[in-house]
Amino acid sequence: MGIFDEAIKIILVGTGATLVMDIWSSILKRLGHPTLDYALVGRWVGHMLHGRFAHEAIGRASPIAGERWMGWMIHYATGVLFAALLVAFTGSGWLANPTLLPALSVGVATVAFPLFIMQPAMGAGFAASRTPTPMKNRLRSLATHAVFGCGMYLAAVCLLGFWRG
């Protein structure tokens, strides 16, 4: 497999997995569970571009022009980055012969990013410790990232049916 083919497959796997995660989040939201507003991710990154990395509460920070669009783009780019991480750990052979365990393991491991970087920087505390229901939020984050991992596997399997070579 050429590097161009591998890059395209990684982009498709990451995008597909992120879409699976978004479907999961949409179901949670319809069931009345709070989910992340990606405009706040855009706001957080927008403020980073101006030198501010941490906030008492990102929802009260000044809005950034284009924050919703920026947040969604960052969300999908992160999904692609995590898919690249999976392939970096497993090798490109995983794309030709995907298995669930490595995808699920990487998906679950990626929960470290929101728990230990995003949430503290956005004002929710270390591992959601400053939220009204920290354990519930931690478990929801873990489940969502497990769904993302399953989504990487599902996207790779679906890709096999459309891409030969």
Question: Can you summarize this structure?
Answer:
The protein has 165 residues and is mostly helical. Helices cover 71% and strands 0% of the residues. The radius of gyration is 17 Å and the shape is globular.
Biggest sheet record: none
- Amount of beta strand: under 5%
Q: Level of helix content?
A: over 70%
Amino- and carboxy-terminal Cα gap: 7 Å
How many distinct helices? 7
Rounded radius of gyration (Å):
17 Å
Strand tally, please? 0
Provide the succession of SSEs.
Answer: HHHHHHH
Low-confidence stretches: none
Shape: globular
Average pLDDT works out at 96
Structural class: mainly alpha
Structure, described:
- With 165 residues, this protein is mainly α.
- The chain has helices at residues 3-30, 38-48, 67-90, 93-96, 100-109, 112-122, 134-162.
- α3 packs across α5 (100-109).
- The protein is globular and about 50 Å long.
- The N and C termini lie close together (7 Å).
- The model has no long low-confidence stretch (mean pLDDT 96).
Describe the SSE topology:
Elements: H1 3-30, H2 38-48, H3 67-90, H4 93-96, H5 100-109, H6 112-122, H7 134-162
